[in-house]
Specification:
The complex is a heterodimer. Chain A is an alpha+beta fold. Chain A has helices at 22-34, 67-80, and strands at 38-44, 55-56, 85-92, 99-107, 115-121, 127-133. Chain A is globular. Chain B contains 19 helices and 15 strands. Classes of the chains: A alpha+beta, B alpha/beta.
Amino acid sequence: MMTNPTGRVTQGQFSFLPDLTDDEIRLQIEYGLRKGYAWSVEYTDDPHPRNTYWEMFGMPMFDLKDAAGVMMELAGCRKTFPNHYIRLMAFDSTRGVESIAMSFIVNRPKNEPGFGLARHEVEGRCIQYKVHSYATDKPEGERYSG
Amino acid sequence: MNKPAEGGVATDTTQITDAKKRYSAGVLKYRQMGYWEPDYQPKETDTICLFRITPQEGVDPIEAAAAVAGESSTATWTVVWTDRLTACENYRAKAYRVEPVPNRPGEYFAWVAYDIILFEEGSIANMTASLIGNVFSFKPLKAARLEDIRIPVAYVKTFKGPPTGLVVERERLDKFGRPLLGATTKPKLGLSARNYGRVIYEGLKGGLDFMKDDENINSQPFMHWRDRFLYVMDGVNKASAATGEVKGSYLNVTAGTMEAIYERAEFAKQLGSVIIMIDLIVGWPCIQSLGEWCRRNDMILHMHRAGHGTYTRQKNHGVSFRVIAKWLRLAGVDHLHTGTAVGKLEGDPMTVQGYYNVCRDSYTKQDLPRGLFFDQDWCDLKKVMPVASGGIHAGQMHQLIDLFGDDVVLQFGGGTIGHPAGIQAGAVANRVALEAMIKARNEGRDIKNEGPEILQKAAQFCTPLKQALDTWKDVSFNYTSTDTSDYAVTPTTA
């Protein structure tokens, strides 16, 4: 259990709100589709703040115009990885943006072990910090089984 | 105004084209010297300035405009023969249009064009030395204000612009689709470094993305800068581990000398900070140098516009903040305080939106109600993240998002640290209000009108938000702005 006010990893757009229902997720997907974004489903068992590249559950859905298709991919990912972190990401290909426009977590492990902070004391009073995912103390594939 | 000398050479008001007459010793009117060209068609490579001028009693507005063109380019008060050694018609700025300002008797808008040869490449210092140099002290004008500027593409391309830019900043921070949240550490003066770091940790762990040094936190007797950096970074890293998010705190590196500024920036880098901060009062070359340093060191550069009100606020004299914002985007900053419209500091909402557009547009369109007089092609220069800071609180979340959209840092200093249940609770209130409002907007709700209701609903599951709404429900700063558009869409009392 993490000690921040939410008790969980707070990445993404909506981590401080109650978990979004499927209907609420669909509304967000539709908003992104209206903006012309392409949706993608990604999952990980290591939500370290600098772990940029979560695994892609298939390619970004560039030509998909119906939220139902994204929901289907999400259902597939949840079925395969029920205890992983899963996020939806929307890509905006507009010139001058060409980056991620939305990102929010839609699945989490039951227990979120969080992170440790290791302090390595160096010259003077300086400290080098290392953020460590407790989940990665276990091998890949076995991290959120409990 | 330059009166013709005793037995003066000319009383005509048109340009003298006969070279012998034009360069005979004495004093001419500026318009006779070639600084007024009503038929001039500005070139694509010209810089165009729009000045608001208030001529002294009895001074002709066209002559005043010509004088502005003259004094901001080559003219001196008398005729000099050495002009004839040069291709002087290129160096003369040209006033080409003068109009009375709507509803402001005695004030005129003057359009002045400057050839590209006038400005050194990549130097805001050089451009400003011309455009806002002598001319603002010129006696025949009661007042002058640089309202807006069109910078030609050719000159824009001589600048590197923001070292990081708002798109890459979001990628580095892993935060998308919502405004970023910050808070300025309070009280701004007096906290020991250890106590100061406590505020940083609580705010970030509670849900903010950034904390911030205030503009006048440098290295005073109560807190040495190295101590501040060390304790702040402990708070930042602890909060990052507690939340799983990238966190930052703007470490103010402003100091008395450039050497000291670099020393502080290097230390911030060594400690792993993602961002440093500088105050506007350090001046253009320092800002550009620090921008370069940030590029070399993967650092985001936060610009606090300390001091700008001394020259941007009064409508009749100084430099509009939209011009300062354009120069800062060229000079190379990543964050820029641009006002809140609803908070405690000066700012008419549409005028403030104009500043935001200047920071974030790929191509700024002329938009008179927002004070934007020119189209401006930014030719892919990176975008600056605007910062809304000063007297705002969670209860205004819908107004802030409605006015400014997603690409902004919303900074609640008092609105976080002054929360009755503590700093973490204050941060939670702001983050929940933000996420609830973004979610509702994306779902298609009309947040401008339904905002208060959306906040109340979110407060049902979030006690800190309820406490924040109850504490600040009646706080607003409804004063008339001094700096407003001359082309309001609807009449205002301003």
